[in-house]
From TrEMBL:
Organism: Lentzea alba
UniProt keyword terms in alphabetical order: Oxidoreductase
Protein name: 2-oxoacid:ferredoxin oxidoreductase subunit beta
Gene3D superfamilies: 3.40.50.970
BP terms from Gene Ontology: cellular respiration
InterPro entries membership: 2-oxoacid:Fd_oxidoreductase, THDP-binding, TPP_enzyme_TPP-bd
Domain of life: Bacteria
Boundaries of every Thiamine pyrophosphate enzyme TPP-binding domain copy: 44-191
GO molecular-function terms, A-Z: magnesium ion binding; oxidoreductase activity, acting on the aldehyde or oxo group of donors, iron-sulfur protein as acceptor; thiamine pyrophosphate binding
Length: 326
């Protein structure tokens, strides 16, 4: 099946958005879904042009409000696979409130957060994920804002699925996307995405082969957390948190084994990712089963319909003018 639309892709040459789009277009067919049962809802920003380029249903919606619109869709149409596409400004600034409430409610949505640490569409202002000291058009002598760590934020809202991947790591990105797609509930995937025009090279240290060995900690559920060439480094416990050590200096039994159902461990892992990218954790931080908001709403509606109580109108509206149909 062809998931490419006939629209001309209008991102700047070299934009990381192309890789994510390409990855999504090549991965989606493997889910075996009908294209007409897939919907991409976006907000405002460069990445929010995404729905135009997918040969599925889609909606380029309102700044920061894509999770709210997608929530309504997920509640009304459980037969659809609903994806939200958003950026660091859209999701974490104007849309921050909508994002955290969607995550805590556990609406059955897959949320792709393209994080390029800058406002690209409006030409280069600092965003909620820009690092402290960042010089941009709106912070000419450096940002004094402390940035959000999107994974920590999502875990603070007790999101039931949280992952992170790099735009340039197609295999890693595909793996996280596949797991997100298979998850029932809100799945937030943060994607480090290069903006070559306004924040070029923001993640280059993670793309250099030698530096990546030292910096990227890819976690796999059930496996000891080692990284670097031949597992040279590992993650161990330190107080209530985690720290990085040389594997040779640590007893094997002290190496932390990833457990994505352990919220405290997931949160401690998120804190290992520093804004200066000394270390960055990728993979699936958290995966937990808990009731979804949309299932709960539909169950209540179905229960009310089945019961057809004579006093339903009175219960809902304080008057007897309501008719239950179906
Ligand atoms: Fe991509 Fe940056 Fe251009 Fe936006 S401004 S399309 S994020 S390269």
């Amino acid at each position: 099946r062809d998931y490419k639309s006939d629209q001309e892709v209008r991102w700047c040459p070299g934009c990381g958005d192309y890789i994510v789009l390409n990855t999504m277009q090549s991965f989606l067919p493997s889910l075996g879904l009908k294209r007409e049962n897939i919907v991409f809802v976006s907000g405002i920003g460069c990445s929010s042009r995404f729905p135009y380029y997918m040969n599925t249903y889609g909606m380029h919606s309102i700044h920061g409000r894509a999770p709210a619109i997608a929530s309504g869709l997920a509640v009304a149409r459980p037969d659809l696979s609903v994806w939200v596409v958003t950026g660091d400004g859209d999701a974490l600034s104007i849309g921050g409130n909508h994002l955290i409430h969607t995550l805590r409610r556990n609406v059955n949505l897959k949320i792709l957060l393209f994080n390029n640490r800058i406002y690209g569409l409006t030409k280069g202002q600092y965003s909620p994920t820009s690092e402290e000291g960042k010089v941009t058009k709106s912070t000419p002598i450096g940002s004094v804002d402390h940035p959000f760590n999107p994974v920590s934020l999502a875990l603070g809202a007790e999101a039931s699925f949280v992952g992170r991947a790099l735009d340039s790591d197609k295999a890693g990105l595909t793996s996280v996307l596949r797991q997100a797609a298979e998850h029932r509930g809100s799945a937030l995937v943060e994607i480090y995405q290069n903006c070559p025009i306004f924040n070029d090279g923001a993640f280059d240290v993670l793309k250099d082969a030698d530096e990546a060995q030292r910096r990227i900690i890819n976690v796999v559920d059930g496996e000891p957390i080692r990284f670097g060439r031949e597992g040279e480094y590992c993650v161990t416990r330190e107080g209530f948190g985690l720290t990085v050590a040389k594997s040779a200096d640590v007893d094997a039994s002290d190496i932390v084994v990833h457990d994505a159902s352990d919220l405290n461990l997931s949160f401690a892992l998120s804190r290992l990712s520093t804004q200066d990218l000394t270390h960055t954790v990728t993979g699936v931080f958290r995966r937990a089963d808990r009731p979804t908001y949309d299932d709960g709403v539909r169950a209540q509606v179905n229960e009310a319909k089945a019961a057809k109580p004579a006093n339903l109108s009175k219960l809902l509206h304080g008057k007897d003018t309501w008719t239950v149909v179906g």
